[in-house]
Amino acid sequence: MSQHSIAYQAARQRAACVERTHRGRIVVSGADRRSYLQGLFTNDIDALEAGRGCYTAYLTAQGRMIADLWVYELGDALLLAMLDDVTASVLGRLDQFIFSEDVQLGDVTATFTEIAVVGPESAAVVATLGSGSADVLNALPLHGNLRTSTPAGVAVIVTRIEDLGVSGFDLYVERAHAGGLLGSLRQAGVPELASADLDALRIEAGVPLFHRDMDEDTIPLEAGIESRAISMTKGCYVGQEVIIRVLHRGHGRVVRKLVGLRVDGDDVPAAGATIRAADRDIGHVTSATFSPVLQQPIALAYVHRDFVEPGTTVTIGDREAAISGLPLVAGLTTVR
Questions:
Q1: b/e map of 268-294 (b: 16 or more CB within 10 Å)?
Q2: How far apart are CA 163 and CA 176, in angstroms?
Q3: Which residues pair with 110 in a beta bridge?
Q4: pTM of the full structure
Q5: DSSP 64-100
């Protein structure tokens, strides 16, 4: 259980890559694209300038999540990235609310693919593909984006990311060119991350994944994404009333919160496993993995608000676990 893959180690120390086969992509164009989405998404879309982006949520009127999304203003259109199995639902909902606005929607999931390159040397690796200089890439803020091309003339959109648990870049290219780009990364000695590697990096960083750690019954405040996904200064958006009521009248207190767990023993708990404390069921595991850094099983889990204090001892089956704040692992570029 103490071993970690070459790709995981590369993501921590150098660079690794993965094709985002579980992502959907929507392009939103038209003069009113930002003001239109401003009233639907939780973050400040209207404030985005060309080359900038943000992480956001799309809520129902009851404050429950429809999806979490990454929004990039490219200058002539907005690019939205999300989990692939919510793409059709998001597209349908967005289309439903277009009336007189100058807004056009397009599902480009099948047209483009998305390849992530992450790790401390990711900027240098991406630069070798002809996708901007390392200095320019390193200067991109989180969710910043630029358009460039490879030496072969293949157009690439580059965005700055952290959602895989390690800082890096997403490269968006036409699907026909994805194989060539992956081939260039392999030739450069950049290994591909397997799903187990992705889980380890993401859970160590405490990054919740939609339909694993969040779903259509989740309020963003429960998942702890409000500081990243919700603007507290923008105007109205769908679901805002519920969010404001919890924040101001309820002082931010929700019944359950997403926390980290450090689990005794070697066995990784199953998703859905019941968590107990004080002779009562207090929550359940949502994602779990073996942490190469901490050398023990770790998990993301929802627990009752009375048990969220770091260091609180709980049980999963016959094993003890300790509540941890998120991230479980922070600021590391090497593996112990």
A1: bbeeebebebeeeebbbbbbbbbbbbe
A2: 25
A3: none
A4: 0.95
A5: -EEEEEEEEE-SSSEEEEEEGGGHHHHHHHHHHT-SS
* CATH of residue 47: 3.30.1360.120
Q: Which domain holds residue 284?
A: 255-336
- Residues 303, 283: contact at Cβ < 8 Å? yes
In which residue are the tokens 């921590």 written? 12
Q: Is 92 exposed, middle or buried (0-12, 13-18, 19+ CB in 10 A)?
A: exposed
- Whole-Å CA distances, 271 to 84, 154, 207, 263, 327: 21, 41, 16, 13, 19
Q: Find the length of the chain.
A: 336
Structural domain includes residue 208: no
Residue type, 278: A
- Angle at which helices 195-205 and 6-13 pack, to 10 degrees? 40
Per-residue pLDDT of the chain (336 residues; tens, 9 = 90+): 345 699 999 999 999 999 999 999 999 999 999 999 999 999 999 999 999 999 999 999 999 999 999 999 999 999 999 999 999 999 999 999 999 999 999 999 999 999 999 999 999 999 999 867 999 999 999 999 999 998 889 999 999 999 999 999 999 999 999 999 999 999 999 999 999 999 999 999 999 999 999 999 999 999 999 999 999 999 899 999 999 999 887 777 899 999 999 999 999 999 999 999 989 999 999 999 999 999 999 999 999 999 999 999 999 999 999 999 999 998 654 332
What is the rounded distance in angstroms from the CA atom of residue 217 to the CA atom of residue 267?
A: 29
Residue 197's nearest CA partner among 166, 168, 225, 223 is: 166
DSSP state of 132: S
CA distance 100 to 205: 42
> Which one of 176, 198, 220 terminates a domain?
198
Do 166 and 91 share a domain, yes or no? Answer: yes
Question: Which DSSP state fits 22?
Answer: T
